[in-house]
Amino acid sequence: MKNLSLIGAAALLSACASAPMMMKVDNATLPEPVRVPAGQKMLMATTGVGEITYECREKKDMAGQHEWVFVGPMATLYAPDRKVVGKYYAGPTWEANDGSRVTGNQVAVAPAGTGNIPLQLGKAEPAMGAGAMGGVSYIQRLNTKGGVAPAMGCDGAAKGKRQQVVYEADYVFYGG
């Protein structure tokens, strides 16, 4: 009987360990600019892992001076249980494996610490296709790691050169 109890307890612990955990976001603790408006409910949380592309370009209205300019992201979106649930790419666009997708417009940003792209709040356009992205009205980018412009020099000799920078961020989707 004791062995059956131990086996049952082990099975229960194993099931709990493999069950997906829902990310919890306490908007009250976030910087005010990236909080979602009152009445929004979390629909889904993902972690994006990928790269951001930058290009060395001449600064606007500053002939002869150059800077790294954001070109676009490409990331795989993972559910909390680390299953691939979609992708994120220029637009910005978040696309679920079911084919539904949503694009967004930046509303606000807040600093995320040295070496990390900023936290962000985006307002979603109406979703395309029926599925996971249906009903999304806001997207937060939280817990960012990396992704800032390259530290390497950007000058006339490097003009046009592209560089990919690794990053990770949580993307939290809300609907009202």
What does this structure look like?
The protein has 176 residues and is mainly β. Helices cover 10% and strands 45% of the residues. The chain has an eight-stranded antiparallel beta barrel with strand order 1-2-3-4-5-6-7-8. Strand 3 and strand 4 (93-96) form a beta hairpin. The protein is globular. The N and C termini lie far apart (51 Å).
Number of strands: 8
H/E element order: HEEEEEEEE
What would the principal axes of the Cα set say about the shape? Answer: globular
Average predicted local confidence, pLDDT: 89
In angstroms, what separates the terminal alpha carbons? Answer: 51 Å
Counting helices, strands and paired strands, the structural category is: mainly beta
| Number of DSSP helical runs | 1
What's the Cα radius of gyration? 20 Å
Biggest β-sheet, characterized?
8 strands, antiparallel, barrel
Oligomer: single chain
Biggest sheet, spatial arrangement of strands: 1-2-3-4-5-6-7-8
Beta-strand residue percentage: over 45%
Can you give the helix content as a percent range? Answer: under 10%
Low-confidence stretches: 1-21
